[in-house]
Amino acid sequence: MTNDRTLTQTNAGDNLTNDPTLQYFTAIRQQEPDTSVAITAIRTLIDVINRSSAGTMSELSHELKSAVQLLTTQTDSSMPSVKSGCELFLRFITLAKFDTFAIDECRQKLIERGQVFLERTLSS
Predict the structure, then answer these.
(1) pLDDT of residue 122 exceeding 70
(2) Is the pLDDT score of 83 beyond 80?
(3) Contact predicate 45/28, CB 8 Å
(4) Contact, 111 vs 46, CB < 8 A?
(5) Cα-based torsion angle of the residue sequence 114, 120, 121, 122 in order, rounded to the nearest 10 degrees
(6) Which residue ranges form the domains of the chain, and what is each CATH number?
(7) Is the dihedral of CA 34, 38, 39, 45 positive or negative?
(8) Where does it primarily localize (predicted)?
(9) What is the residue-wise DSSP string for 96-120?
(10) Confidence at 11, pLDDT banded by 50, 70, 90
(11) In whole angstroms, what is the distance from residue 64 CA to residue 20 CA?
(12) How far apart are alpha carbons 48 and 70 in whole angstroms?
């Protein structure tokens, strides 16, 4: 006999498996196993921004924080490395003022700043 709690937990786990953020992260880890998990997490956050349909910076910020939470709790990768890489990335991309731009322009600026951060991280 299956109780409802077990079924709900199983379905929640299945939903996480289908999460595009986790799928992207896992795909990079499988294709490029020598790439550090922090770099993989940063690339994943750039992908989250690319895929985002957020209408405000607040919504986009919430999506990014949710993605960081997933990456630090639902992967078997080194959590401190992922968490610190994500925190540094988020700080770097949000240093600029975005209050005079439309959300699409903000998203593009965040992607550009994210790419700069990724390139600097890769070259260090």
Answers:
(1) yes
(2) yes
(3) no
(4) yes
(5) 110
(6) 4-123 (1.20.120.1070)
(7) positive
(8) cytoplasm
(9) S--TTS-HHHHHHHHHHHHHHHHHH
(10) very low
(11) 13
(12) 12
Residue with tokens 């770097």: 92
Q: Are 109 and 101 in contact (CB under 8 A)?
A: yes
> What's residue 4's pLDDT?
42
46 burial (CB, 10 Å; 0-12 / 13-18 / 19+) is: buried
Half-sphere exposure of 51 (CA within 13 A, CB side): 13
- Which tokens is 108 given? 């593009």
| pLDDT of the residue at 7 | 35
Residue 24's contacts (CB-CB under 8 Å, 6 or more residues apart) are 43, 44, 47
- Supply φ then ψ for residue 78, to 5 degrees: -60, 105
Write out pLDDT tens, residues 25-70: 999 999 999 999 999 999 999 999 999 999 999 999 999 999 999 9
- Given a contact cutoff of 8 angstroms between Cβ atoms, the answer to whether 21 and 71 are in contact is yes
